[in-house]
Amino acid sequence: MKDQPLRTSVIGSYPFPGWLEFSAQHLDQFGTTDRAELQDDAAMVAIQDQIAAGLDVITDGEQTRFDFNLSFYGFIEGIALEPASPRRFGPPAHDQRGKHEIVGELRAPRGLGAVEEFQRLKRLAGGSGKRLKVSVPGPYTLSGRLAPNQQYADRYAITEALLPIVRQEIADLVAAGAEEICVDEPSMSCYGFREDTRRFVDLFNRTVESGYGRTRICTHLCFGNFKGHPVGYRKYAPLFPAFFDLHCDEVHVEMANREYAELEIIGQIAKRTDVAVGIIDVKSYYVETPENVAESVRACLKHAPADRLVFAPDCGLSQTARWAAKQKLANMVSGVSQVKKEL
Description:
Shape: globular
Protein name: 5-methyltetrahydropteroyltriglutamate--homocysteine methyltransferase
Structural class: alpha/beta
Largest sheet: 7 strands, parallel
Cofactor: Zn(2+)
Distance between the termini: 16 Å
Strand order of the largest sheet: 1-12-11-10-9-8-6
Helix content: 25-40%
EC number: 2.1.1.14
Number of domains: 1
CATH topology: TIM Barrel
Enzyme class: transferase
Keywords: Metal-binding, Methyltransferase, Transferase, Zinc
């Protein structure tokens, strides 16, 4: 953003406090008012940690979701309960997550719940002076754990059914006053090497048409972080030049975990839109020092101007222990601030 160069942000999720993890396993022991209090308290913990770190842009930490993506299935009609894990033993990874059966028409008459999350964030942090961001998964990513059937023959058919649902959620968020909406599409970046990237661009642009030009639309393109593990071919080159045509105001790319491979791509992105660079490795427990961060920021400035650059972790922080997440964010802000002073 031209009025806030080198700003600091996050993707969406934040670690759950230990007491929330415990409480989530015993929700039947809480009343409705108790659960509402739990949600407020958990969101406030994430908000306060982000404010203490000094971030320019904050979220609610997605504290009321059990997963950045799958929680939305609870709002969608026509989805059966998840089957047993196809692989229950061995190291934790993506192949342990089964697929939901589709048992009817995919509908979401109550919306996807993101508006309620934003309203809570606005109520709890509206006076903080921070920019507030809310995230929703894009329809292609949202389709990933649903099994095709006779009605929805393949993943693209499922995506097309989910697209108007996500588009309406974005419209409702805009109406609620959301000033920044991140449409998470990591499945597009994970599988773009083998799919039609122009088709992905068309899907994305039709999804965000209810918000693009009305609020700040961001997208998050990473390579997965389930249980701290990536998935797919971790190269951005196959996505471009098609992805230059995404209708958004900010494109986030994962760099730290990939040792800043393809960093030069941010210069090309910055000619068209703001670029958020992942400079904190959420998959590593090495806590980047402010000097490490400052060095990375200077490297980015060789490719893109300050008023086009945003800095964030590689991905959401839900898979990182809270003690590490807090220090990583604080050091990220400190390192970026060092370079701001140099400029």
